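Below is how a single chain appears once it has passed through the pipeline. First comes the sequence as given, then the structure the pipeline wrote out for it. We keep one example in the README because the format questions we get most often are answered faster by looking than by reading.
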Amino acid sequence: MKEVDPEEVSRILTRLKTVRGHISGVERMMEEEKSCEEILLQLVAIRSAIHKVSVIVAQRYANTCIIEAIDQGENRQEALNKAIETLMKLN
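Resulting structure:
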């Protein structure tokens, strides 16, 4: 198995902490009965942050997991099809 890049993991964790902060913010906003517009803007920020995490993890998947599966003898086409199916679920 390919070695994990600590910088990459750190970037992912930082983004996830940002998402957690945004979610806590939305919870507070709901309790404080903030406007729908303000809440929706925070939800857009959450979706954007999650998308960024998804892109980083998808790149990691393409650069490590698929190559590793092929190196370990998995059929190349099967590995690619599986990856495509998984990545398509992001949308």
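The mean pLDDT is 89.

See the next section for the split statistics.
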